[in-house]
Design goal:
By secondary structure, the chain is an alpha+beta fold. It is built from 14 helices and 19 strands. The strands form four sheets. It has an eight-stranded mixed beta sheet, with helices on both faces. Strands 4-5-6-8-7 form a five-stranded mixed barrel.
């Protein structure tokens, strides 16, 4: 025969079956037919009884029926032996020996890019009722954990989402050793958990994923946190109202403590959400302007002299020459428009050396700036900004509803109210509203104070039911020298401010593009022409009428929320 590993016995030709392997060993194939690698299992004696003349007999005198019976008995014996080993291992583990489920928990090897397993991780926020009875793998932080006896409950946090993970000893997937391991995990440790998604009997009120919980199958610690944290995430995430009760025992986390341990402070759900909303503001700002054919530019931040001719600059030494950090991309935006780019914007850092300790002023912030050529009127700029902010507000409401809800839990706020189109008031109208309300010290040809802006915002809200409006046509004395004067009254300008909740967020205007008028206005404001010669020269070679404005990213986010 073809199988040289078996001894052949003589059989009558009529009984010979060349398709059956002879011999008294039972084999299980572990390779394709023709491959010599075959694994012998439990040897059995051939069943020679009961095989009458009518029973088909294979080589070696073993009937088919007997061979099947022997194979079945061998399989039962193997399963019985395996079960006995498992029982023995559990007994050994209960007596203090090795845990047979030890591979399902413990500290994971250091991840140093040694392999890619193809494992798929699910984000905690995506574990919902649609995944019930599915097995998922999660990575997150131990928010809190409590263990008792043969059970443990762990809250896993990933960014703004949390889910309850349950561990019950069953000696099949969860052992006492696993429960003990879980109970000793420190808060903020990073873990991988694989488990089955289940629907709890009652919603889990303490978690964001309230309608599901995870029945753990395995857990491995990726990185352990030190046992003692500078402060607890729960303490840093409580709303102000939690501290108002006289008998409160909550611990308030101070600002200095937060800033000294910012890497932990930023893990609170509200801070996670705030940064996502801030990212959304940039995304929507860029999206709205790109849709209107604007080009994104990147202007210098290390320059010679002051970018706006002012004194509030951070000065520094540049290779033996005086230099400063840019106060604004104003000059570069205008130069880009003069270079026939026509519509430009930038999202970049701005530096102001202002010793002003208010929530409105920062020495360093991210500016959202735009500049554009106009055909006839500076209202063309207002039209673009109007559509831009409406797109931004609508986008935040629609795309970041979850983040806004998270912020609202710790820092309650009223949803922003705004009109379509945006309300526009002339500066004299605003002055009149303040005077009619009995506000004193209002200068009709000067700038509004912070307090006057706040009061006017309240009056506008009461009269027009909007938190967002545009005030335009500011007095000449309240604007920079490069602002275009109003054509019908030289005491006013083609300028504007935009407000949210009574605070200015953006200031802009039509710029002077005529060299003679620009030089005249500079002298009237006490600025020496030599100090801004490079700026004026940009308009000598044919200049486009243009206008624009700039807004602080942080101020938009702060006032929207």
């Amino acid at each position: 025969t073809r199988d040289s590993h078996n001894t052949h016995a003589r059989t009558p030709p009529a009984r010979r079956n060349n398709n059956q392997h002879p011999g008294k060993h039972y084999f299980k194939m572990t390779a394709p037919v023709g491959d010599a690698h075959m694994t012998p299992e439990t040897p059995t004696e051939p069943d020679v009884g009961g095989g009458g003349d009518d029973e088909e007999v294979g080589e070696g005198g073993v009937s088919k029926k007997a061979a099947k019976k022997a194979a079945k008995e061998a399989e039962k014996a193997a399963q019985k032996a395996l079960k006995a080993l498992e029982v023995s291992a559990r007994e050994e583990a209960a007596a203090g020996g090795p845990d047979p489920l030890a591979h399902r928990y413990g500290d994971a090897p250091l991840i140093c890019s040694q392999e890619r397993t193809g494992k798929v991780w699910t984000h905690v926020r995506d574990v919902d009722s649609s995944k019930v009875y599915q097995t998922v793998t999660l990575r997150g932080r131990v928010h809190n954990v409590r263990g008792k006896g043969k059970s443990a409950f762990l809250v896993l946090r990933q960014q703004t989402a949390t889910i309850q993970v349950i561990f019950f000893v069953d000696d099949v997937k969860v052992s006492k050793g696993m429960v003990k391991f879980v109970s000793n995990l420190t808060s903020e440790s990073v873990v991988d958990i694989q488990g089955l998604v289940l629907k709890p009997n009652e919603p889990i009120a303490s978690c964001t994923q309230q309608n599901v919980e995870l029945q753990a199958m395995s857990i491995h610690c990726i990185s352990r946190s030190v046992p003692r944290l500078p402060f607890g995430i729960d303490d840093a995430a409580r709303p102000e109202s939690a501290f108002e009760a006289e008998d409160t025992t909550y611990v308030r986390v101070g600002q200095d403590t937060r800033l000294n341990h910012r890497v932990i402070d930023l893990r609170t759900p509200a801070n996670q959400a705030i940064f996502r909303v801030q990212s959304g503001v940039c995304e929507l700002f860029r999206e709205a302007l790109r849709a209107q054919d604007f080009i994104e530019i990147h202007t210098p931040k290390l320059i010679g002299g002051a970018s706006e001719g002012g004194s509030s600059v951070f000065k520094l030494d540049y290779m033996g020459q005086p230099a400063c950090l840019a106060q604004s991309p104003q000059l570069y935006k205008q130069m880009a428009v003069m270079s026939d780019m026509e519509r430009v914007f930038e999202i970049g850092p701005v530096f102001r050396a202002e010793n002003s300790n208010t929530h409105r002023h920062l020495c360093e912030f991210t500016g959202l700036d735009m500049e554009m050529a106009i055909k006839e009127h500076y209202f063309e700029v207002l039209d673009v900004l109007d559509s831009l902010f409406l797109h931004m507000f609508d986008g935040l409401t629609e795309r970041f509803a979850h983040e806004l809800e998270v912020v609202n839990k710790q820092h309650p706020f009223e949803p922003l109210k705004y009109l379509r189109p945006t309300l526009r008031l002339e500066f004299p109208e605003g002055i009149q509203m303040l005077q009619e309300h009995g506000v004193e010290g209002v200068d009709p040809y000067g700038d509004l104070s912070t307090e006057h802006e706040r009061i006017l915002g309240g009056l506008v809200k009461a009269k027009y039911d909007t938190d967002f409006y545009i005030l335009h046509r500011y007095p000449l004395g309240a604007r920079p020298f490069y602002t275009m004067p109003s054509p019908d009254d030289p005491k006013y300008t083609n300028s504007f401010d935009i407000f949210i909740r009574g605070e200015e967020i953006i200031s802009g205007a039509q710029r002077i593009h005529d060299v003679e008028l620009l030089s005249k206005r500079a002298l009237e404001c006490g600025i020496e022409i030599e100090t801004i010669a490079a700026y004026i020269d940009a308009f000598k070679y044919g200049a486009m009428p243009h206008g624009g404005g700039g807004v602080g990213l942080g101020r938009v986010g702060m006032l929207y929320l």
